[in-house]
Amino acid sequence: MVVTPHRIDVHHHILPARWLEEERERMAGRALDFDMVAKWTPAMSLEAMDRNGIATTVTSISTVIVRPNDPKRAQALARDCNEYAARLCQDHPGRFGSFALLPLPHIDQCLEEIAYATDVLKCDGFKMQTSYETQWPGDPAFAPVFDELNRRKATIFFHPTVPGCCTNLLPDLNPPLIEYPFDTTRAIMSLVFGGTVRRCPDINFIFAHGGGTVPMLAHRVANLVNVRKDLAERLPEGAIAEFRKLYFDVVSATNRPAMAALLQLTTVSKLLFGTDIPYMKAEFTVSRLDELGLSASDIRAIERDNALRILPSLKR
Predict the structure, then answer these.
(1) What does pTM read for this prediction?
(2) For the residues of 64-101, what is the DSSP string, one character each?
């Protein structure tokens, strides 16, 4: 059946040659079938998009090796990936947007890349990881980066990874099974309790995979904060109000328990469609979202309208 393209995919990965060269060995131990993933091409993405009614995809790099002592190499990889993504947008007008990669934890290089990716490459937003070895996004050292992104009213897509503390804690379980959702939770907590979310009201924060474990833990956290005066003072409107400022893609959350938890925490207006191509098949999100009993207008908001509201450049 031919489906009229209308969906906007905000969680869709590309594998530029340089990234693949640097990351193959590490990623082979993470992805369930990285040999298959590594065969990705733009044509494969386009074919999956056409098959699943996806009009536009906003691409991103999944994760990168953190190089705290090599800012030049980190920036060079980010620049190469960002220029690759920009060429993809130019070669297929209207089909692709991009979340530009930032070379954290290197602040000066990030500020340079924000300017270049925005002003020259015309990216649609930025991609960060949930952690950088021993630092999470809410670390005060990263404040200049978030302040600049707030000044530009940017959208940031956060993709999970494994922090330095937690590699191989359960060696027989690869990171996406356990550590990805928990590191997403750590990232959100660091941004909320570190004050970044309140300080940067003009940033749109998007978190992958339904926000990790935050939907289930949010009210527990909010209740415990009430007995910690020092924490409560940081969040004068309460923890729940801060969590409700965030956006979440629905990859891996298109099941009734996960969606129920999300909708107890936030509203449909904060949910976004994603596929996690090429690590997952687009059909998983498309078919399962349709099985959740949501209204047609809610599905339309998740699949398209919410993304256009925070990524108006996609209307070009």
Answers:
(1) 0.95
(2) ----TT-HHHHHHHHHHHHHHHHHHHHHSTTTEEEEEE
